[in-house]
Recover the amino acids of this structure.
């Protein structure tokens, strides 16, 4: 039926023959005019069409001016009749806008269908995360906690009033939005579920349900809320109590050695450049006198009337 309707539709336009006879000059006979504008899109959604036409100067002497007679008088083949009019499929979006490249409609909220002519109802399940209620115009969604938007299809951010229960913390993840990080005894989107021993949380022990969740009785070699920590391995990682003091002692020794090394380095430099370490004449005389004095004390055979050589006199530093 659709093909028959389409054929009748197009045939009715092909039979319409627009010609110009009285206004055509003799030298303009048998000439096609420029194309006219496209007519409005018409027809039912899915079978809509629009056409455009152009006029033809038919010779004045043709009595019955129709397509066949005019083309025959102009010695133009009947196959050229396609130059008189042409058609193309089209689409009118009732409640939306047309994407010309694909000839499809993008519908406004609350409407659907190939031409956006159908009203969305709750039977179409429009609410992604919420409950739906039909209205006179369309529908209204009541979103679940954590979601927003006309269709409840947008996940909230932590700043949108998200509250994670039982000590959980909210963190933004960008997409799909927030995420609650729960303590070890709770789970769920908002940490609302108490972990029910049915989930077998105790890895190395027996579980007992309690009003606040569960409680694990761990085996002798394990510890932790879920009996998931090996005591022996944990002890191997512990350092002795005196270890920090040893560390401080070693650091102090290294620092002292470093200071001494720097002192020796600077002392050698000062001696090399003559800042310290060179003896003057007074120091050399003082040392010579001291050596003579020691030799005198060792010599017990010196006569009593023998005078001490002048060099034995020890200068006190006050004599000039």
């Amino acid at each position: 039926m659709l093909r028959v309707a389409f054929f009748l539709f197009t045939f009715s336009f092909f039979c319409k023959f627009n010609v110009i006879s009285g206004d055509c000059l003799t030298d303009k006979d048998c000439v096609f005019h420029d194309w006219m504008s496209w007519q409005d899109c018409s027809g039912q959604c899915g079978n809509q069409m629009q056409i455009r036409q152009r006029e033809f100067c038919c010779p004045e002497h043709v009595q019955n001016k129709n397509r066949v007679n005019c083309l025959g008088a102009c010695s133009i083949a009947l196959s050229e009749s396609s130059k008189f009019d042409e058609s193309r499929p089209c689409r009118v979006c009732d409640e939306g806008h047309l994407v010309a490249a694909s000839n499809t409609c993008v519908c406004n909220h609350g409407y659907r269908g190939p031409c956006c002519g159908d009203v969305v109802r709750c039977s179409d399940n429009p609410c992604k995360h919420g409950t739906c209620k039909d209205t006179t115009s369309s529908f209204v969604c009541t979103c679940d906690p954590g979601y927003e938007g006309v269709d409840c299809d947008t996940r909230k951010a932590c700043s949108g009033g998200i509250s994670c229960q039982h000590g959980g913390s909210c963190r933004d993840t960008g997409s799909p939005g927030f995420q609650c990080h729960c303590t070890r005894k709770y789970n769920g989107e908002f940490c609302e579920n108490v972990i029910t021993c049915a989930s077998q949380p105790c890895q190395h022990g027996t579980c007992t349900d309690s009003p606040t969740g569960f409680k694990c009785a761990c085996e002798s070699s394990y510890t932790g809320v879920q009996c998931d920590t090996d005591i022996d391995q944990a002890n191997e990682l512990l350092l002795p109590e005196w270890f920090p003091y040893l560390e401080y002692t070693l650091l102090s020794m290294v620092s002292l050695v470093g200071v001494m090394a720097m002192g020796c380095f600077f002392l050698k430099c000062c001696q090399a450049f003559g800042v310290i370490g060179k003896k003057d004449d007074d120091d050399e005389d003082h040392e010579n006198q001291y050596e003579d004095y020691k030799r005198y004390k060792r010599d017990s055979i010196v006569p009593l009337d023998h005078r001490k050589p002048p060099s034995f006199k020890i200068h006190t530093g006050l004599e000039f």
In short: The chain is about 25% helix and 20% strand. The mean pLDDT is 76. The first strand starts at residue 19 and ends at 20.
